[in-house]
Amino acid sequence: MVSASLQFFAFILALFGVFGDIAATLLPNWKVNADVGSNIITAITQMQGLWMDCTWYSTGMFSCTLKYSILSLPIYIQAARSTMVLSCILSAFGICITTVGMKCTRLGGDTDSKNNACFAGGICFILAGIFGLVPTCWYTREIISNFLDQTIPESSKHEPGGAVYTGFISAGFLLIAGVIFCSSCFKRQQGAWIYPPKQHHFPSTEQESNAGYSLKDYV
């Protein structure tokens, strides 16, 4: 019952991680213009994402421009695109697999098949968390390095946006869910190895029949 509750808790964390991962991939506020210096126009907020750049005016108008050219983008944005998409795909696969393998569901067949499915789903969550954590760290590093660079004008400096923090939190949820799923299956298999089923030895009928003969019957 305890392992089933842990698996359900891990499944809820994985759902939050999947939704956050998709939201972080699509949101345009991976970096926003830094409000530093005295010449910054505070009536305009510029945001840059993986797929589009958006501008928000104080009047309430909102305009976005898609990034059509892939080769013109920096390497870290190209890597962030591919890894975030892979993270979303792997986390979606993990949701489907763990739905079959959890103890609280009636899918997946026998106990061994459900354990294997849970373990495979946990591996998918761990890989999805790693693929989601790498681009957010790399993107944050580029933002911080440009912010600390003295040669870049203050009007061109940016700060990490909400999508970056959403990606960090989602990756953490996916990693925790994957570890819980894998550890729950591993503990059960380890217990089966440490405490193997006892084998009952019964005396053979041949030995009993031989023991019944008396030596005095032989001449």
Quickly give the structural class.
alpha+beta
Secondary structure: helix percent: 55-70%
N- to C-terminal distance = 68 Å
Residue stretches low in confidence (pLDDT < 50, at least 5 long) are: 188-195, 204-209
Major sheet summary line: 5 strands, antiparallel
Structure, explained:
The chain has 219 residues and is α+β, with helices and mostly antiparallel strands. It has a domain at 4-28 and 71-194: Butyryl-CoA Dehydrogenase, subunit A, domain 3. The chain has helices at residues 2-26, 75-101, 111-148, 162-194, 205-212; strands at residues 31-33, 44-48, 52-57, 62-66, 158-160. The chain has a 5-stranded antiparallel sheet with strand order 4-3-2-1-5. Strand 3 (52-57) and strand 4 form a beta hairpin. The radius of gyration is 29 Å and the shape is elongated. GO terms for molecular function: structural molecule activity. Claudins function as major constituents of the tight junction complexes that regulate the permeability of epithelia. Residues 1-20 form the signal peptide.
In short:
The chain crosses the membrane at residues 75-97, 118-141, 161-182. The chain is 60% helix and 10% strand. The chain has 219 residues and is α+β, with helices and mostly antiparallel strands.
Structural key phrases:
219 residues; alpha+beta; Butyryl-CoA Dehydrogenase, subunit A, domain 3; five-stranded antiparallel sheet; 10% strand
